[in-house]
Amino acid sequence: MRPWWAGSAIANGTLELSYQYVNDAKATKTGTVAIPFAATTANNVIATAACEMV
């Protein structure tokens, strides 16, 4: 997966991605990745990822 985003204005917020997988013990696991971001006028995005597994 290769996420792509192009903002059209100066903005900030949080991009949240949910996921699900089956581990070696055949148990289904889920989680969410939250990526806070700030977009600038120079067409840059500054972000830091944090992962939460359930």
UniProtKB/TrEMBL annotation:
Q: What is this protein called?
A: Uncharacterized protein
Natural source organism: Steroidobacter agaridevorans
